[in-house]
Amino acid sequence: MAPSRSGLRPGTYSWSGTHVLGHVHGRYVTVDEQNGSELFYYFIESEGDSRSDPVIVWITGGDRCSVLSALLFEIGPLKLIGEPYNGTIPRLRYHPYAWTKVASVLFVDSPVGAGFSFSRDPRGYDVGEVSSSLQLKKFLTKWFTEHPDYLPNPFYVGGDSSGGKIVPFLAQKISEDIEAAVRPLINLKGYLVGNPATGEYNIDYGSRVPYLHGMGIISDQLYEMIMEHCQGEDYSNPKNSLCAQAYEISHPHILYKKCVYASSKPNDGSTERKILKEEVGVLKHPPPRPPMGCQNYVNYLSYFWANNNITRKALGIKKGSKDEWVRCHERDLPYSLEIKSTVKYHRNMTLKGYHALVYSGDHDSVIPFLGTQSWLRSLNFPVVDEWRAWHLNGQSAGFTITYTNNLTFATVKNGGHTAPEFEPERCLAMFARWVSHESL
Fold it and tell me: Which PROSITE patterns match (predicted)?
């Protein structure tokens, strides 16, 4: 195992009875000097050879969701233990199927306002998909300037859900800097997106009804009625009540029980908890508490972990930067949806020869894999490895197809939205093979 140069190693965490915080330190990078906007990030080194293993920047999805969602629930080396909250700081455990087994990961709270990222001037929160992507590019420029040892490592941009809109756009902007010889020269090799949004409503949501019908969730009669009355409807704002109801049907995992969404609501839509003020250490806006049997009970626990003063001190959170951490901001901060379609960016990047992985949990009805398949086919790339099962431990773990221009699509059997949250072992196997340029 290579010596640690910076960041965090799962093997170096201090394991106590209550939490795993020993060497966990976050950092800030200023991306908007005028408004004093700073992005917060966690860097975790690969458990393999960090001198040669890939480096990935990870962009999570949702409505300005904290990247802790990815770190604690999906691909990071730490997991919250799903046990009843007793008033103390929730406990953490080691996650054996973390992607940090084979890569170093930069988990970034983006855009400004997500997680522990903040702005001294409230105007700094007024960003959109394009401006926040450019801030991420600035973040990476500064980070690699401060950590030049990682410049030779293969670099990838990754993300899921609505973060899948940012990934190919950001990757293209980085590639343009490389072509213009802008320093530092990042060793960009490709990108990956999971259960990705494209910005095209017909693609992202238009496949929900056929998917739900195919999975036996809606009847033939309802399917035929929807197809008859909803053709041509605006998926983002359907006028027909039947169509509106149909398009609202979405489950992160169609086989799991429906649970309350464990995210607190903004108090009055103001920026009160985003501007600088002293923390009081009290959870003012606790989220709804799901039943213990719910997959998202750990989402509820994350509020008590991230808002604990012990955690904040260990992470190095700046005093007064955040009155209260929330997992996701539900449209209480301005955010412009400027990227209308990512398909052209996928085409551009793959035609340049960059390595690309698109994967979908096959039990996700939020962004069903049928829609993802449709835009991949629209690229009209020849198939070099036909649709087939890929395997783990002698069993089918999903299905995959490979196109020319280094483009791979894979489904993850029993994966939801997002896939690593529900099938971590399969997703690690998929990622490890792909990033090593092996066939799935």
Answer: CARBOXYPEPT_SER_HIS
Query: Phi then psi for 162, rounded to 5 degrees?
Result: -70, -20
364 counts as catalytic: yes
Backbone φ and ψ of 78, nearest 5°:
-120, 145
Where in the chain are the domains?
A: 10-202+337-435, 206-248
Query: How far is Cα 45 from Cα 103, in angstroms, rounded to an integer?
Result: 7
- The residue assigned the tokens 């029980």 is 257
In tens, the pLDDT along 10-37 reads 344 433 333 344 344 579 999 999 999 9
- Determine which one of 69, 132, 161, 365 is catalytic: 161
Q: What residues are paired with 392 via a beta bridge?
A: 395
* Residue in 104, 251, 364, 365 annotated catalytic: 364
| CA–CA separation, 247 and 220 (whole Å) | 16
Distance linking the first and last C-alpha atoms of the chain: 26
Tell me which CATH code domain 10-202+337-435 carries: 3.40.50.1820
User: Among 251, 253, 355, 417, which one carries the catalytic annotation?
Assistant: 417
Q: Is 417 a catalytic residue?
A: yes
CA proximity to 10, closest of 70, 74, 99, 112? 99
CB of 284 within 8 A of CB of 326? no
pLDDT, tens only, 376-396: 999 999 999 999 999 999 999
3-state secondary structure of 426: helix
185: left (phi over 0), alpha (psi -120 to 50) or beta: beta
